[in-house]
User: Which sequence fits this backbone?
């Protein structure tokens, strides 16, 4: 009986050793990649910045984007309930709340329908649905023909993105103005 | 190597591709199969990862088969398999992050992929290392081929692309094929066609010898 325990223990010990070695080798690479992705995403949603600073206000995390030392705008993380699961986004705004860039980090929307919020067509740079947001002030966003056109067949996902962006930006600007 | 030995080893390899194909014959590991086979790129990635795990686990378990007592063989197998899967996951995250993101949770789920535990139990713990290597490679190749066939069908019909390249801009994709129902339809029809072929040729109908999954 003890023999079984000892054999299992030995196998687990060797397994742990091997895993520790592999982890030690790969972990720095994985962390560096995470960093690189984060920085790349930040520049995507607030173009033209050469430096950014992480900050917090009232429990809300955000980034400040700088160009040659002067504050250009902010980058916020917007989490909103979509059709199925949470839609996680990064929004870049200037100091007045005009949207400079927007990116969907993760979502669980239906492929071919709601998933179009993050789908980039070949030869294009960003999802067509999100392109509509650029240049508009977050407080004026509305899901309608002349403002933000919904994805056909995916009204709920489209509305979730619009509402999520609007709410996050307005909440943030309220806090910042105080 | 003796001529007879080589033939035998080659049989162990070949059976995983044809008569004991893990997906179409043994019907093992359907959960990841159905979930990952939405496009060919993911299918190939998953196939390679699973083959690597199969190889590693078969080799270790076969080498330790005299050493592992029968009563605790399942926990021992699982520790070995989980270790290899973790190694694959870490390597993938570090050197192929795009693939790791695409396959998502199905990489760690290789641990409970019935193919791996099934071959450890049915073959590796009862056969030599060389034979186990051939078995692992055969099963891995068979699994990858099955994945490629299913995902090619699903990708072409369901997304209108192949390996990410659009085939025809005019084609309106049948979305059902990239979600669960399409997967089940494709797999069922494929197994049906294979069995029809075998009945016609009066060969034995592919028997399901795997555990339920």
Assistant:
């Amino acid at each position: 009986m003890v023999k079984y325990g000892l054999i299992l223990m030995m196998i687990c010990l060797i397994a742990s050793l091997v895993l520790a070695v592999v982890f030690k080798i790969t972990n720095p690479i994985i962390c560096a990649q995470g960093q690189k992705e984060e920085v790349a995403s930040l520049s995507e949603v607030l173009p033209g910045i050469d430096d950014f600073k992480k900050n917090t206000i009232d429990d809300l995390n955000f980034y400040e984007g700088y160009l040659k030392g002067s504050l250009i705008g902010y980058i916020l993380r917007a989490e909103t309930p979509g059709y199925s699961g949470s839609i996680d986004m990064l929004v870049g705004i200037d100091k007045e709340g005009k949207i400079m860039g927007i990116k969907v980090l993760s979502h669980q929307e239906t492929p071919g329908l709601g998933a179009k919020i993050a789908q980039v067509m070949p030869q294009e740079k960003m999802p067509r649905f999100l392109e509509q947001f650029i240049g508009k002030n977050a407080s004026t966003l509305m899901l309608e023909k002349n403002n933000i056109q919904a994805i056909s067949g995916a009204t709920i996902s489209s509305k979730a993105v619009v509402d999520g962006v609007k709410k996050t930006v307005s909440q943030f600007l309220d806090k910042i103005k105080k | 190597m003796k001529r007879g030995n080589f033939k035998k080893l080659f049989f162990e390899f070949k059976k995983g591709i044809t008569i004991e194909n893990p997906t179409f014959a043994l019907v093992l590991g359907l959960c990841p199969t159905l979930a990952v086979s939405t496009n060919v790129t993911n299918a190939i990635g998953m196939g390679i990862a699973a083959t690597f795990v199969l190889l590693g686990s078969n080799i270790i378990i076969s080498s330790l088969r005299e050493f592992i007592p029968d009563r605790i063989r399942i926990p021992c197998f699982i520790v070995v398999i989980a270790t290899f899967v973790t190694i694959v996951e870490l390597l993938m995250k570090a050197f192929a992050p795009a693939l790791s993101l695409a396959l998502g949770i199905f990489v760690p789920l290789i641990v409970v992929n019935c193919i791996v535990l099934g071959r450890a139990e049915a073959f590796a713990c009862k056969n030599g290392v060389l034979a186990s290597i051939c078995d692992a490679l055969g099963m891995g190749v068979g699994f990858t081929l099955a994945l490629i066939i299913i995902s090619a069908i699903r990708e072409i019909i369901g997304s209108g692309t192949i390996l990410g390249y659009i085939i025809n801009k005019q084609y309106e994709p049948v979305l059902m094929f990239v979600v669960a129902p399409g997967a089940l339809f494709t797999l069922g029809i494929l197994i049906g066609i294979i069995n029809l072929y075998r009945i016609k040729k009066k060969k034995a109908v592919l028997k399901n010898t795997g555990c339920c999954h």
About this structure: Chain B has a mean pLDDT of 87.
